[in-house]
Amino acid sequence: MLKINNLTAHYGAAQALFGVDLEISTGETVALVGANGAGKSTLLKCLMGLVKPTGGEILLDGKPVTGKNPAQMVRLGLALSPEGREVFPELSVRENLQLGAIPLKLSKAEEAERIEEVFDRFPKLRERHLQLAGTLSGGEQQMLAIGRALMAKPRILLLDEPSLGIAPIITDEIFAIIHQLSRSGTTILLVEQNAARALSGSDRAYLLANGKIVEQGKSDELLNDPILRSAFLGAA
Ligand code: ATP
User: Fold this and answer.
1) Which of 42, 86, 212 to mutate to test the pocket of ligand 1 (most atoms within 8 A of CB)?
2) Distance between CA 65 and CA 2 in Å, rounded?
3) 14 CA from centroid of ligand 1 (Å)
4) What pLDDT score does 234 carry?
5) Which end of the chain is less packed: N or C, by CB atoms within 10 Å?
6) Rounded distance, CA 122 to CA 25, Å?
């Protein structure tokens, strides 16, 4: 469904991605793990059209989509829940959700229906639909960021560090929702620093180090991979 070939990206003169190859099939949950600064967010931003790759290509259903802008990528079926959540603090929960579907130019009725679907998945957001997003807890803001991405009914959901800075009990809740999404057939690319968590909740995984894929495979096998274990799972 999604194929990345030999992707490179730069910030000015600094290179962040060095020839990344990655593939996601329909219905899979794929984890992308790696240390701080490895390039995980950059890869997601390239997929979303937020960072223009400097080389390589991105294929969606075999068609090149490299260099398209974020609104076009949303219309093609990708949506991102960004690192740090990036909800609009001065807008209400409902208004933040509305933003997720803007590129799709939905009717008011369709928009309201999708908001209800998000509320069914995240009942806490329904309770707080008029509350300003900036006054939500970190966990609630994370739910809102995921909900906002779901407003686009993406074929591929990109999740950047959904557990970052969130209390463990809320992280469990968020991962339970991610698993439900995955079971209901949503294709997911999950970026996580918590490698154990990412591997236990995914089908396959890639390990990114210094802008390069250095390991890949089935998640349950990678849980026992010596390189990954010594780097991330606290065992040699
Ligand atoms: P983290 O988990 O810390 O977000 P990451 O794996 O997502 O790490 P990236 O954020 O993709 O890593 O960063 C990859 C490299 O690109 C790093 O060296 C980072 O300093 C650099 N970088 C990221 N964003 C920018 C930017 N806007 N301008 C310049 N350099 C950047």
Assistant:
1) 42
2) 10
3) 10
4) 52
5) C
6) 27
